[in-house]
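Second attempt. The first submission of Phage protein had a stray character pasted in from the spreadsheet, which I only caught after the job came back as garbage. Lesson logged: always re-copy from the clean sequence file. Corrected sequence (50 aa) follows.
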Amino acid sequence: MKKLMLEMMKEGGKDINDILDMPFAFFMELVDESNKKNVKKTHSMIDAFM
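This time the job returned cleanly.
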């Protein structure tokens, strides 16, 4: 969450108070979306753990 907050402050010009005023459910959706970008998909289980 810290990474997303810092990213929003840099790119969006948001103040920390603006971020904290957001509804919690909306903020968690943003966190989930940012985590999905980092997932690498593989076709085999062996490749996934190497």
